[in-house]
Fold DNA-binding NtrC family response regulator.
Amino acid sequence: MIQIPAKVLIVDDEKDFVEMFSLRLQEAGQKVFEAYSGKECLDMLTERPDIDVVVLDIKMPGMDGIETLQQIKKKFPIVEVILLTGHGTIETAVEGMRLGAYDYLLKPADFEDFKTKLERARKRKDEQEERIRKAEQRAMIRKSGEVY
């Protein structure tokens, strides 16, 4: 079975982490984009609305991960977000899930655990897109007055 790569945006102010994580994801067959701040993340999503999953660090200078998550869910509601957190911010990650994040990972993240969460987040986004397509089709059929 051919698997279409997920389009993943990694957002973290630690450049070395982003580059290392990007390489691992690319080796696993994913299409990876990088951002180093909340603002860069939102700009990238505007440029690339086809991104499936954002991997978002909570602790960043300027616009932190929670504020960035809120903006993502406001402007790009079906994009899934996996939060990255250090041990001291698990409560913040749980709050992020209440605000719409798909899940969270503790740094340093176990790559196999991450791949599982990424796959599930991508599947959830695909399912949401399919429900939207079906709803749009039903609306078009109702509008035209045709019955199938």
Observations:
- The chain has one domain: 7-144.
